[in-house]
């Protein structure tokens, strides 16, 4: 075998001092579902996000203490991650986020792993960034307006 081939993201792990706020944000606003929750002493809640998982780890738990201190605005354990959304217009997405008091940025052209845009350089798409309760940046790509492929 020459190399391995990556098909996508299996899961990401977000460490936090406010696990319930993070779970509420990712479930209530972004539509994830709690798939598995271990004992609070362990401190792991796994959220289903399409075909991937978002693991929320309480930094005050057994698992969380193994990873060091809590993330802050200047000390993070992850820069950002990108979620692919089902088709929705830019306007409807901005309206939805506004209903949840989430101030969104502007749609910008960014490089993406799964798509080739009609009018942009290969793999660059219009995307939008928001922030979760940990001030972790979450990006969205809106593929419905573009010709795309999935690995």
List keywords for this structure.
4-stranded mixed sheet; globular; disordered C terminus; 2 domains; single chain; 2,3-Dihydroxybiphenyl 1,2-Dioxygenase, domain 1; alpha/beta; 151 residues; 3 helices
Largest sheet, strands/sense/barrel = 4 strands, mixed
- Helix count equals 3
Radius of gyration: 17 Å
Q: Whole-Å distance between the termini?
A: 19 Å
The class by helix and strand makeup works out as alpha/beta
Measured by DSSP, the beta-strand proportion falls in: 25-35%
Question: Number of DSSP strands?
Answer: 8
Average pLDDT reading = 76
How many domains make up the coordinates? 2
Uncertain stretches: 115-124, 144-151
Question: Strand order, biggest sheet?
Answer: 1-4-3-2
Outline, from the CA principal axes?
globular
Helix content: 10-25%
Order of helices and strands: EHEEEHEHEEE
Entry summary:
The protein has three helices and eight strands; from the N terminus they run βαβββαβαβββ. With 151 residues, the protein is α/β, with parallel strands linked by helices.
């Amino acid at each position: 075998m020459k190399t391995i081939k990556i098909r996508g993201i299996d899961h990401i792990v977000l460490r936090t001092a406010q696990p319930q706020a993070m779970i509420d944000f990712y479930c209530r606003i972004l539509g994830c579902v709690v798939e598995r929750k271990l004992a609070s002493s362990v401190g792991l809640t796994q959220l289903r996000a399409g075909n991937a998982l978002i693991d929320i780890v309480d930094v005050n738990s057994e698992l969380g203490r193994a990873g060091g201190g809590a993330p802050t605005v200047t000390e993070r354990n992850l820069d950002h991650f990108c979620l692919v959304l089902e088709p929705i217009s830019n306007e409807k997405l901005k309206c939805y986020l506004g209903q949840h008091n989430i101030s969104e940025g502007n749609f910008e052209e960014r490089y993406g792993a799964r798509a080739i845009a009609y009018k942009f350089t290969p793999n660059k798409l219009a995307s939008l960034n928001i922030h979760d309760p940990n001030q972790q940046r979450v990006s969205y790509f809106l593929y419905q307006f573009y010709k795309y492929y999935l690995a």
